[in-house]
Structures are given as C-alpha cells and as structure tokens.
Amino acid sequence: MFDDSRGHCAQINPRLLSSDEDPTSFRVVLLVHDECRIRATVFSSDTWEWLVLPWVDVPASSGDDERWIQHECGMQANGFLYWVYEDQRYLVSLDTATMEFCVTELPHCLRDSTFDIGKAKDGATCIVYSDQLNVGVLMHTRDDDGVEKWVLDRVVPLDRELERVLRVGLDDDTVLNHLVADHSDLSVLAVQDGYVYLCSIPSVHHDPQTSCWFLSLCLETMRLERLFRRTFDNAVHPYIMAWPPSLVGNYGGFALQDAQSLK
Fold it and tell me: Domain map of the chain by residue range?
C-alpha cells in the first residue's frame, strides 16, 4: 500500500462494501494517503486477493497535521464512499463501481459543523449539517460542465421542535425551560433513508447531571422525534435492522395456521 509514497503515510479505517444481491459477497476498501496523494486498496471475497490502485494527486490540506484526512469519519451513500479533510475544506469521494476518486470543495457552512452524507427519501444524495440548533440540507448536483457541487437546499431552526419533544411527559414549565436552555447545540450522527439522527449537546459537556437526548428528524416534514436519553458517554451510530423473529409473532401459538383456526 505504501510503495512509492512521499513523506509521511497513514492508513484510514477500513470500509466494508456488501452486496444486496449476494450477502456472502463483499469488498473491503482501505484508503491510504501520503503528504499529497491518496490511493485505495481493495480486497474482494470473490478472489480473496487485494488490488492496489494507483496514487491519485489531490488538493493540499491547509493544516499542518500529517494525518490530514479524518480517520474516524467515513460515510457511504448511493455507491460512493466519502472521506473529509481534517480542515473540512474538501470532500474525497470514491465511486465503488469504477474505483475512481473525485475531490470537491465543501461550502463554508460545513467548516465548523458536524455533518453526514446519506440519502433522502427519494434516494437523492444529500449532506445534513448542524449549526447550533439549526439543521441545514445540501443536495448533490452537477452543472452543465459536469462539475460536481453541493448546493444549499434549506436551513431550518429546530429550537421550537426541540422544545416540543422535550415537553413530552413534562408538566413543569420551569423544568422544561431548564432543559431547553441546557441544550445549546445539535450534533448530526447519521443520515439514513430520509431521516437524520441527532444528539442534543448539553452546554456543559460530559456532565452526568445534564440530559443528552438522541433524536430523529424526518427530512420530508422536518419533524423532530425524541428517541431516548443518554445513559452513557461514548460514540454511537444508528443501525437499522429487521425485527427479531421472536417479536414478529409468527411462531408457536401465534403461528399463521393457528391464527386461521382461531377465526
């Protein structure tokens, strides 16, 4: 992976590419970078071999850090893998069908924000970011010359929505006002199938006495829903899974044939 590298090199956390058609088939993608280039190394479960792709020149980072691509932040949507520069100035994308890289400059509104890339309900690729209690949505487009761009679609304040969801189960306005005042920011955790998963950030970080709420936001209606309150202080990532068979109900005395006889 590091052959012919220039200066300091680093490897970024591997990414898994699974196949919807054949769940037993998968690929693992490793991104490595030196001082000014990137390259991908791909493992295929079909061949059990690694393919090392050529180095690709990319724009220079404005930071002094030798690890100039975020290592803990990896995003995926519509057949593309994404990585972000540490200075959040550029976005690296890899087309998993052609294994070709593309680097696009990110809008200034993302420079100091948390954001994630995912799919809207119509399948379009979008970036959702947070700015204090506001949430913005950018859509992926191409101009007439084929240049990729991220265009701001909307910015929506969620302070009233946050107040509404925190009010659920609370009759004491004093407690409610305290809860709202304690949450000065929202952090984007993930964007999946038209929903944004958020975390409310207390004004006093890592304070076990201050509630941290995990929330979901529908991109179509921009309606916020409260999921659960933090009982730990660690990284989280939403995962959508099927109902466990034991909860579906089609077993034992609840099997379909027994249900028919009960009628």
Answer: 1-77
Rounded Cα–Cα distance for residues 222 and 133 (Å)? 13
CA separation for the pair 106, 183 (Å, rounded): 27
**Residue 263: which pLDDT band, with cuts at 50, 70 and 90?**
very low
Strand order in the sheet with 75-77: 75-77, 80-84, 90-95, 100-105
Question: What is the rounded CA–CA span in Å between residue 202 and residue 162?
Answer: 13
The gap between the terminal CA atoms of the chain, to the nearest Å, is 65
Burial class, 164, CB count within 10 angstroms (exposed 0-12 / middle 13-18 / buried 19+): middle
pLDDT, tens digit, 9 for 90 and up, residues 17-30: 988 788 788 999 99
Q: Left if phi > 0, otherwise alpha if psi is -120 to 50, otherwise beta: which for 169? A: left
